[in-house]
Amino acid sequence: MAEQLTGLADDRALLGRTSTAERVSDILRGRIAEGFFPPGTRLSEDSIGGALGVSRNTLREAFRLLTHERLLVHELNRGVFVRVLTVEDVEDIYRTRRLVECAVVRGLGEPPYSLDALGEVVEEGQRAAREGDWKGVGTANIHFHRELVALAGSARTDELMRSVFAELRLAFHIVDDPKRLHEPYLARNRQILQALQAGDRPEAEKLLAVYLDDSLDRVVDVYRRRVGEGEALL
């Protein structure tokens, strides 16, 4: 926890003079997504408030916002914890992803599309793989799907999926073999990009749907094996 709080203290400058619960929640959301606070971690009000230099009330409001986003959970008489997803949570996340992401591709309209950002995150994943940074590959995969959703040009859709992708990162932190989970999707990301570059929306949507179904199967398989090994997921 000491190392985690040292890194968190470095984020104090991001608060500036207009410290708000929303900005605190942005910082904590990012730290949770990066794995500084893994699923199941108890978040200390005193330690985190001291590291960020914010009041107890501000921090509690930030915790409330993140609880609403299903990233944190409050347990009576125990405190606030980073949420650990269930298999049912993971299935629901992927159901939402399939509905939204496939609809975005289907509704793109006529090509050409603005794909520079999507191409950059494909290369980001390849670089991370060459360096053996498999958690980085997982981050690049999230960035790929975030940029894919951004093609819709909808702030509301971006906001919805920001929360969904943050929850998905909680699932990835449970995985004990990130290379096995993420490596197969490097090539698939490029295939989806190439289909969009060619203006073939139906092919891109088909590739994406199969991609999401296969990814769900892999993640759920990990969860079920962990449950079988007696590791609590609640």
Map the helices and strands.
Blueprint: H1 2-9, H2 21-34, E1 42-43, H3 45-52, H4 56-68, E2 72-75, E3 79-82, H5 87-106, H6 116-130, H7 134-150, H8 155-174, H9 178-182, H10 184-197, H11 201-228
Antiparallel strand pairs: 1-3, 2-3
Helix pairs in contact: 1-3, 2-4, 2-8, 5-8, 5-11, 6-7, 6-10, 7-8, 10-11
Describe this structure in words.
There is one protein chain. This protein has 234 residues and is mainly alpha-helical. It is built from 11 helices and 3 strands, in the order ααβααββααααααα. It has helices at 2-9, 21-34, 45-52, 56-68, 87-106, 116-130, 134-150, 155-174, 178-182, 184-197, 201-228; strands spanning 42-43, 72-75, 79-82. The protein has a 3-stranded antiparallel sheet. A hairpin with a 3-residue loop joins β2 and β3. The longest helix is centred in the last third of the chain and has 28 residues, at 201-228. The protein is globular, with a radius of gyration of 19 Å. The two termini are 21 Å apart. Residues 230-234 have low confidence and may be disordered.
Features:
234 residues; mainly alpha; three-stranded antiparallel β-sheet; 11 helices; globular; disordered C terminus
Short description:
The chain has 234 residues and is mainly alpha-helical. The protein has eleven helices and three strands. The chain starts with a helix and ends in a 6-residue tail after the last helix.
